[in-house]
Every structure is written in structure tokens, then in C-alpha cells.
Fold:
Amino acid sequence: MMKYCIGIDMGGTTVKLGLFSREGQLLERDEIATRWQLGRQTVLEDIAASAHTLTGRRKIPLHDCTAGFGVAGPIDSQGYADAVVNLNMYDFYPGRELSEKLDNIPVTAANDANVAALGEMWQGGGKGYQNLLFITLGTGVGSGIVLNEKIIHGAHGLAGEIGHIWVNPHEPETCSCGGKGCLDQMASATGIVRNARRFLAKTEAESSLRQINDLTAKDVFDAAKAGDAVARETVDYCMGFLGKSIADVSYVIDPEIVVIGGGMSKAGQYLLDVVFDHYRRYPKLKKTLCRFALADLGGDAGIYGAARLALDL
Structure:
């Protein structure tokens, strides 16, 4: 039995690494630049060097470790990545290639949003639950599903991509995926700002939002909390799509808890209340509704989840 695990979360700007005990205690942490411009092999070599540094600080032999690897792209059940577009990496097995640079210790890879979901279930906002829907609200809408304490990958690594469910047939702009009307366009920080500007253009009502040149989702939520009518209408409209989508997905996966993270989760209980009020209108087949909670691990959810992924080997 392996005594330690290394959790790795590879993002577009930085790679985060954590050395954990089997019980989930974070022993060492590191963060390095993702030098993707120099190619995939350079990035993997940098990660391997950092992993050696982490274990060296504690004088732990690398062969006493197993590793989990969160990657920003679809990973199928065989560990294959067709495309990690934002890092210009294509057609490879991330876990297998990283293992070769880590003295062939076991490395298992999964999509980063799914890995973050596993982290929140293990040591975060979903601790104590086995079935979880994790949603990150930031520039886009990311998500991951954990059922019976296991990540759901799907046949092609796309399971849980609720951000690209088609929710609004009246949306005129095109989503990054090529579709129109995706949840990502409505409930993300970008969607909040876009729709706030639309509401402002349709009314002459006074609003503090009119005084802000570089409007952000935080500005909209802050104004809504302060009672601004246009901001409240925007939040209610956009989060309505999210609440209904969660209700729809709950009929498929039946989660115990919905955990919401990402930058927009800093809006706190106000955000949860608005989303829950929409969600609760739809499920009719059961009396017990999902619990809603905020994520606890912040930017470290990925390394916790990757570590748990490693333990599950």
C-alpha cells in the first residue's frame, strides 16, 4: 500500500502540486509556471522536477507515492486526451507520459473539473457525502459529477459538461463551443455582465451599474445585494437557467448535494439562495431536495481531488 500521494492540477498559467498523506493531510505544496509554449514534454518535465522537490523536502522516496493528474480537457476512461486546447496539447495519455518521468510510479489522469469535484467531496464543501454535483462559476460554467465517491467520466470524458447544455433558444450570440444558448453563456460571469448590459439598454430605470465602465459580475452581485432593481433582475434571470439545469441534471444523477465554487461563489449565501429558489420549483418526484453548499477548498480543490484520485488506484 502506498503511503503518500501527489496531487497535480495543470492549468493554463500555473501547475499546482501537493504532497498528501493517505488521510488527506496536505504535507507540502508547490506551484510552478505552465510553460506550455515550450511544448508538452517541457511541461511534464517541470512537473516531475517539482514532484521530486516535494518528496525531497520530506525525505520521502518517490516510490512510496502514487499520483493523480488533473488536466484541463476531456479525459476518457482509458486516460486518453484527444485535445487540451488551451495548452496546445493533443493526442496523448497524460498519466502514462507523466509516469515515465516519475520513475514509473502509478499516475492516473482525469478532467480538472471532475478532479476538483472529487476534492470537494473528499475534504471540502461536500465532505460527508458520496454523490455530488460540483459547479464552478467563473469566466465559464464548469462542472463535475461524483457518484458513490467515484468520478463519472463517460465514454469520451465529457460527462458532467453541463455548461454546454442548450438552455436559451433566444440567445443571439455564439458560444465558444460553437452553439447558441448554452448555460455557459447565461450563468457564467461573462453571461452575467452581458445580460446586465442588455437589461440596462432596455430600461431607463436608475441603476448604480450605469456608473461602472468596466462592469464585472461582482459589481452586479454587489448591486443586487444592495437592492438595485436592474442588478436583481439580471441575477434572477441568469441564475434561473442554472437552477433549472441543476433540477434537470438531478433527475439523471440524483446527487445528495450541489457544491458551487469558482470566482462567482464569493457572492456567498445570496448566490446559493437565488439558485436554490429556482431549483426547488422543478423536482416533483421526491420530497427530499438536494442540499446546496459553497465550495471550501478554493483553488486547491484540484490538488486535493487529484490526490484522492491517486488513492483510488
Q: What stands out?
A: The longest helix spans residues 229-253. The chain is about 35% helix and 20% strand. The CA atoms of residues 96 and 107 lie 7 Å apart. The mean pLDDT is 94.
